[in-house]
Design goal:
The structure is a single chain. The chain is of the alpha/beta class. It has a domain of 165 residues: Nitrogenase molybdenum iron protein domain (Rossmann fold). Helix content is 31%, strand content 13%. It is built from 11 helices and 14 strands. The strands form 4 sheets. Strands 5-4-6-7 form a 4-stranded parallel β-sheet, with helices on both faces. Strands 11-8-13-14 form a 4-stranded parallel β-sheet. The chain has a 3-stranded antiparallel β-sheet with strand order 1-2-3. Helix 5 runs antiparallel to helix 6 and helix 6 runs parallel beside helix 11. It is globular, with a radius of gyration of 20 Å.
């Protein structure tokens, strides 16, 4: 599959020195890369309650966006354009409502659809499989020349990351471009929805989508309640080398909805996508394992259980190893977030109705081989 996760705080790059990693994780790519300006917002559902409380929560997000300069309108009247969007370390002025958008990010494609902007889209990357009605192209986001995009005559290009200095190339052609990096948590996804709403002229629809998405995730979390509180988990992004994600990622924030604990948190050492070794995983002995490398690397619960020493893992012994589509860890659009949260809640309700969580007391010292730059191989782009 692919992944997007991009240039301001920390840039993750492809694993290029390990053949196995390249073969297995090449479709994963830059899931993490640069923390966007919204990365510092803590993950958690918005304030619950009636519409007024939800509206207030959205207003709070808008205030944060305005305070940080993530969205800035230039007119005091009713006009929405021009508007300046700051994302992924770049600031872009969008002079007028775009009508020919080229979106090279699967997560952003989901967001554009959710806010009603899909009719303005003339092309999406080949990884944007949702919605089915999106005008897919053969583009990947790794094109070396911006001129490849000119036949579509885009008046706005949305990228997941700045590969091959594409931002500079598009600027030279006077084509507005937005870099929408990997959301660091659910709130970051909310902020991107609001930014795309402002960038495309769908401000009201974006606000409604944030409320709708938050309501859906809150409802899913309430179904599970405290049944999974304290249970530990491990997310596998590639098997060799063994890469994972901490709770400070958008996929980790979905697990946090259910009050679960990520065994990788103590091994991050500044990276949200650390590399671990098998001994660390065996020591941590998680209650649940989720394999988000079933597409890129052909992994499965059966293959996982057959790895040397893994048969003793609690998750293996209790049959709590699950394989999911790589998009669960590489896309943070509304559709994927709700789909994965629903899947996870179903697993938790079916498996853990009466199971008591195990005490998380492993001493995490130098048990990981984590790189400081983090996991840069996360599924291509989203």
């Amino acid at each position: 599959m692919k992944k997007e996760f991009h240039p301001a705080a920390s840039v993750a790059e492809y694993l290029s020195k390990c053949v196995k990693a390249t073969l297995c994780v090449l479709p994963l790519l830059l899931l993490l890369t640069v923390n966007s300006a919204s990365a510092s917002v803590k993950s958690a559902p918005l304030q619950r309650g009636h519409a007024t409380a939800q509206d207030f929560a959205v207003a709070g997000l808008e205030a944060q966006i305005a305070h940080r300069g993530l969205v800035k309108t230039h007119n005091s009247g009713k006009k929405s354009f021009p508007v300046t969007i700051t994302s992924g370390g770049y600031r872009e002025v969008i002079p007028s409502r775009p009508t020919r958008i080229l979106c090279l990010s699967a997560s952003s494609t989901q967001m554009l659809y959710a806010i009603g902007a899909l009719p303005q889209v003339v092309g999406v990357d080949k990884y944007s499989i949702y919605p089915k009605s999106a005008p897919r192209t053969s583009f990947t986001g790794y094109e070396t020349s911006a001129e490849d995009y000119l036949p579509l005559h885009p008046d706005l290009v949305i990228l997941a990351f700045n590969e091959n200095s594409m931002v500079a190339q598009l600027n030279a052609l006077h084509i507005p471009v937005l870099v929408m990096p990997a959301a660091s948590n659910i709130h970051s996804a909310y902020i991107q929805l609001l930014q795309l709403g402002a960038a495309t002229g769908h401000v009201k629809q974006a606000k409604k989508e944030v409320v709708k998405l938050n309501s859906s995730l809150t409802h899913i979390a309430l179904r599970v309640a405290n049944r999974a509180k304290g249970l530990t988990y491990f997310i596998e992004l590639s098997p060799s080398p063994l890469y994972t994600a901490t709770s400070d990622t958008f996929i980790g924030s979905v697990f946090s909805l259910f009050k679960m604990k990520d065994i990788a948190d103590a091994a991050g050492h500044g990276s949200n996508y650390p590399q671990l070794n098998s001994s660390y995983l065996l020591k941590s002995n998680p209650d649940m394992v989720v394999l988000a490398d079933t597409v890129c690397c052909g992994q499965s619960p059966a293959l996982f259980a057959k790895r040397p020493g893994y048969s003793v893992l609690r998750a293996v012994r209790t049959h709590n190893v699950y394989g999911v589509n790589d998009s669960a860890a590489s896309e943070w659009g509304p559709h994927t977030l709700v789909e994965f949260a629903n899947y996870l809640s179903g697993v938790l309700l079916r498996k853990y109705k009466s199971m008591r969580p195990h005490v998380f007391s492993v001493r995490h010292k130098a048990a990981s081989h984590g790189g400081e730059s983090g996991f840069s191989t996360t599924k291509r782009n989203n």
